[in-house]
Amino acid sequence: MIKDFFYLAFKNLKSRGIRSWLTLLGIFIGVTAVVSLISLGNGLQMAVASQFGISENELITVQAGGLSGFGPPGSIVVDPLTREDANAIERLSSVKNTVLRNIEDGIVEYNNYVNFRYVGTIPENKEDIKLINAQLDAEPLLGRLLKESDLGKVVLGYNFYNKKEEWGDKVIEPGKAILVNNEKFEVIGIVEKKGSIIMDNVVLMLESDADDLFGFGDEADVIIVEPKNKEEIAKTKEDIEKLLRQRRDVDEGEENFEVSTPEAALASVNSILDGVQIFIVIIASISIFIGAIGIINTMITSVMERKKEIGITKSVGARNEHVFLQFFIESSLLGLIGGAVGILFGTLIGFAGIYGINLWLGTELGLNIDFILIFGSLFGSFLIGGIAGIVPAMQAAKQNPVEALRG
Amino acid sequence: MNYKTPANIIIWGTIFLKAVNGVSLKIREGEFVAIMGPSGSGKSTMMNLIGSLDVPTKGKIFLDGEDISTLDESDLAQIRGQKIGFIFQSFNLINNLTAKENVMIPMIFQGYDIDERGFRADELIKLVELTPWAAHSPGELSGGQQQRVAIARALANSPEVVLADEPTGNLDTKTGETVMDFLNGLNKKGKTIVMVTHDPDLAKEYADIVYWLRDGKIEKVTKKTVKRRIK
């Protein structure tokens, strides 16, 4: 019998006017907001994480704080990190290895076209190179990555290869030569697309080469630390912090450096996104609440308008609970339809958003279609519609058949 | 359902209603009864009471030996669904359903499955000669056709009593005659027909017994002595 009520409800909904459908806007907007946010939210998380170079590796990054201007990470600081700092960190019992890294703005010239690009250093021993490649999560798309003996050679980010329009429509690929700060370097590899502005536009060269160009001396923008025990990464982080506080003579809470683990970095990204999500969920909840009121309103109107129909069904044997069920199911279906349209639009917005992010950042993120979210939203909308329909359905059920037949 | 139970409707005692007051009548199985009277005479109230759409504030109504005046809304609905078929002046079909679906509606509430409903609705639609119109909505049918759909619907659960409230009131003479012929045919097949009308010719022509109401009371009762005209 329930199936029949669904059928009757469906037939009724089909014949409803635009006014009834407009009342679904609340549910529709609410569900659209939630679905688009979540399908986009995870995409945003990935996008933001990749922009910050946060990867799944278990390495600790140490950066000097007290920035005095804008530039690549750690490049413009008042009190930079030094090789001495790195050595001291490496002497900690919980640390296995450290690598110094510098990132600078360089002037890159190719095919008589000049562009500013990041220049990142690669250490000059096998072990350290392995560590850095893990930290960068770099894989070659063309050619190969740098080895310790590759003086005078560079590996380039994906955009050098991909955006030939920036170099006079001439593709840069392994075997070609480029000028960095007027020094000639041979390109030996292109790193696959990373979706990060820095990594996709970076020129990677050995430390000595970079030192010749920029004169870092013993200073380092970033110290990459490999902990001895990856399970105790948090403890290693604390050890480093303690050591650097001593070396830099600062009190706890007043650090002019930052020691970050991928987990912590990801957590801070997530906490920002969580804030945004909570805000949108609140807006969506208000919208859904208004939608529920809309459904109550349209159902009460419907009971008034269909008084005669109620009388007819009662006269042919419908009991109060049958009439209740018919209106209750109809109301639930209204909610469900609002939710379904919301899911459709939400997914479309998510899709457009992801497409936009990919286009803007050059990432290759996919839409996060969460079936639990979809079914949850559908069920939730159905439930909200049902709850909103209880009072109108009770009103319908209680109609006196004689009076109802008069219309 | 027990189709063999004799359908005896007795309104007995005093019913203190504005519309109907002090009415006592007995309707036997297979009778064609007409309730006649001018507007405001209480015909429709009588109809509602007989059809268990309403209960009297005082007095008793027996249907098949059961006092239905004390039943609750749910039991009354059950009785309406099983034992009574309604035909209204304004057809009262549900507009967003097809003719066949309208006929199927009463069967839903009696728990018939979809196949049974479909089969029975097809038969009833055929009986009222509307098979080609089965999939049409009421809006696409003429008044006479709509009333025939209503007759088919009234017969959906094989009720013992068919209550017709001014069944030809919204129809032209010729169409009205067709509808009356259907009702007459049903009566010939053993159905008890109770018809409310203000048309004395109709009442005289078709009904075995005519109860004349005025101001909520039975003014007179006339019984047919000659054989009814059967078309």
CATH class of chain B: Alpha Beta
Strand segment count of chain B: 10
Low-confidence stretches of chain B: 1-7
Oligomer: heterodimer
Order of helices and strands of chain B: EEEHEEHEHHHEHEHEE
Question: What pattern of helices and strands is seen along the backbone of chain A?
Answer: HHHEEHEEEHEEHEEHEHEEHEHHHHH
Strand order of the largest sheet of chain B: 6-7-8-3-9-10
Instruction: Quote the CATH topology of chain B.
Output: Rossmann fold
Strand tally of chain A is 13
Q: Give unreliable regions of chain A as ranges.
A: none
- The number of distinct structural domains of chain A comes to 2
Radius of gyration of chain B: 17 Å
Q: Quick one: which chains have the greatest interface?
A: A-B, 25 and 30 residues
How much β-strand is present in the residues of chain B? Answer: 15-25%
**How many whole angstroms does the radius of gyration of chain A measure?**
31 Å
Q: Approximately how much helix is present in the residues of chain A?
A: 55-70%
Beta-strand residue fraction of chain A = 15-25%
Separate helix tally of chain A: 14
Structural commentary:
The complex is a heterodimer of chains A (407) and B (231). Chain A is an alpha+beta fold. Chain A has 2 domains: 2-51 and 266-406, no CATH class; 60-260, no CATH class. Helix content of chain A is 55%, strand content 17%. In chain A, the strands form 3 sheets. Chain A has a 6-stranded mixed β-barrel with strand order 4-5-10-7-9-8. In chain A, helix 1 (2-14) packs across helix 12 (320-361). Chain B has one domain (30-53, 72-223): P-loop containing nucleotide triphosphate hydrolases (Rossmann fold). Chain B is 34% helix and 20% strand. In chain B, the strands form 2 sheets. A 6-stranded mixed sheet of chain B has the order 6-7-8-3-9-10, with helices on both faces. A 4-stranded antiparallel sheet of chain B has the order 2-1-4-5, with no helix packed on it. In chain B, helix 5 (143-154) packs parallel to helix 6. The longest helix of chain B is centred in the C-terminal third of the chain and has 16 residues, at 173-188. Residues 1-7 of chain B have low confidence and may be disordered. Chain A binds chain B through residues 1, 3-4, 8, 11-12, 14-15, 308-309, 311-322, 401-402, 405, and chain B through 48, 51, 53-54, 73-74, 77-78, 80-82, 86, 88, 92-97, 101, 105-106, 108-111, 114, 153, 156-157.
